[in-house]
Amino acid sequence: MIASTAGVTRQTVYAHFPSRDALWGAIADQLTAEAVAAFSKLDLETGPAVDALFRLIETSSQVFEQHPIRLYPAAGDQERHEPVVDLLTKIIRRGQTAGEFTRDFPVPWLVKSTTALCHAAAELPPRKASNTLQATLRRLLAVG
């Protein structure tokens, strides 16, 4: 699948990558780098925290929709998630400090919940995913 998508033979792919895991790792690294580059262009420090959160999620979705290969990171593949986790942590903390987001749950819990909901939304049709994810996150993060 990867070789045909890239327009090369399997032998060519495996000449550059010693194993399937190494190949998938390189693909994940490239997608992570593209996402981080896109995130660096976002203003996540101003305006309502919920708007910043949705800008981050939308940008992440756009990066991954540009590629025909869907990656589902293995459990323990936290290093590639760190840039997103760091940004989510800052946004959620900012939202709690400003009184926009609930303080009923700790920041790490809200970050993990947000990440899990984003992964679940990836299983839905794009239009439904966005609406469902936003509605769910608004309820999760709501004050009161």
Mean pLDDT level: 86
| Residue share in helix | 55-70%
Beta-strand percentage range: under 5%
Reading off the top of the CATH hierarchy, the class is best stated as Mainly Alpha
Which stretches are poorly predicted, pLDDT < 50 over at least 5 residues? none
Number of helices, counting only DSSP H or I runs of 4 residues or more: 7
Largest sheet geometry: none
Question: Structural class given helices, strands, pairing?
Answer: mainly alpha
- The CATH topology annotation reads as Tetracycline Repressor, domain 2
According to DSSP, the number of beta strands is 0
User: Based on CA inertia axes, which overall geometry fits?
Assistant: elongated
Summarize the entry for a quick read.
By secondary structure, the protein is mainly alpha-helical.
Structure overview:
This protein has 144 residues and is mainly alpha-helical. It has a single domain, classed as Tetracycline Repressor, domain 2 (Orthogonal Bundle). 69% of the residues lie in helices and 0% in strands. The protein contains seven helices and no strands. It has helices at 2-6, 10-16, 20-39, 49-65, 78-97, 107-121, 126-141. Helix 4 packs antiparallel against helix 5 and helix 5 (78-97) crosses helix 6 (107-121). 13% of the residues are buried. The mean pLDDT is 86.
